[in-house]
Design a protein that fits this description.
Blueprint (H helix, E strand, L loop, with lengths): L24 E4 L16 E3 L14 E2 L8 H4 L2 H10 L4 E3 L14 H12 L7 E7 L7 H11 L7 E9 L3 H15 L3 E9 L2 H17 L3 E6 L16 H8 L2
Parallel strand pairs: 1-2, 1-8, 2-3, 4-5, 5-6, 6-7, 7-8
Helix pairs in contact: 3-4, 6-7
Length: 252
């Protein structure tokens, strides 16, 4: 075979790649310009809780469209948007956003299963289909809701599981145990599409410096995104990258 055209990167300088060869670390954003604070050497993917990018993303970053709920304002353009995203290289489609929470998608497991069969299942085999993203709330929310959804959607193609988790920045062990347990319970790749830590800026920095290597090294996690790539978190109000954003982009 031909010799490599470039020198291989030493393995300890980049995060552990997921099974598809990309970078696990991603961005959750509302305004696309904030994604330009990062590059494809730091970030592998991005999403915005919608089905269109809403602007240009950095070159080489995979956009994952989401069907936020079963309401017409989300389903109306979904098939066209998802088809276009897949044609542009999208590897994953994301299911509903926190259907277990009344203030978010607010769907029963059966409603979600019905909508999945109508809008998401037709894309099976064209992209990896990711479950509705559940909160880390207790029953009937969280994994209890997801269990009921999976029971109602036995003939559905669920390629991976999406979870959200929030807690104190000082409670790193809880985050690590919860995420690990989800991977063990479902036996599918886990996408931590939202995680966030409350606390002082220094505590949040410490949290990320512990969590990012953990997530990169946890085989069951295929992708993750801190909440969120916007002012007050990974960015500053003036559009520059924040100290926390620098940590997010550079911690290995």
């Amino acid at each position: 075979s031909a010799p490599p055209t470039s020198t291989p990167v030493p393995p300890n300088t980049l995060p552990t790649a997921p099974s598809d060869g990309g970078i696990k670390r991603g961005l959750s954003y509302n305004e696309a310009p904030f994604t330009k604070l990062f590059t494809s050497s730091q970030i592998g993917w991005a999403y915005n809780w919608g089905s269109q990018t809403g602007g240009d993303l950095p070159a080489g970053i995979d956009y994952f469209p989401m069907l936020w709920s079963n309401k017409p304002e989300h389903t109306g353009s979904w098939v066209d948007d998802a088809t276009a995203a897949i044609a542009a290289g999208a590897s994953h489609l994301l299911g509903f956003n926190e259907p277990d929470l009344g203030s978010q998608a607010n769907m029963s497991p059966q409603e979600a299963a019905d909508a999945w069969k109508t809008y998401i299942e037709p894309f099976a085999g064209k992209a990896k289909l990711v479950s509705p993203a559940i909160t880390n709330g207790g029953a009937p929310m969280g994994t209890a809701w997801l269990d009921d959804f999976l029971a109602a959607c036995t003939e559905c193609t669920i390629d991976a599981i999406a979870i959200h988790i929030y807690d104190s920045a000082t409670n790193v062990g809880y985050f690590q145990n919860y995420i690990t347990d989800v991977g063990t319970k479902y036996g599918k790749p886990v996408l931590v599409t939202e995680f966030g830590a409350s606390g002082q800026p220094g505590q949040q920095q410490d949290f990320l410096t512990q969590m990012l290597p953990f997530l990169d090294g946890l085989a069951s996690v295929s992708h993750y995104a801190y909440f969120m790539d916007g002012p007050g978190v990974l960015a500053n109000a003036d559009g520059t990258i924040s100290d926390l954003g620098i940590t997010y982009g550079t911690t290995n």
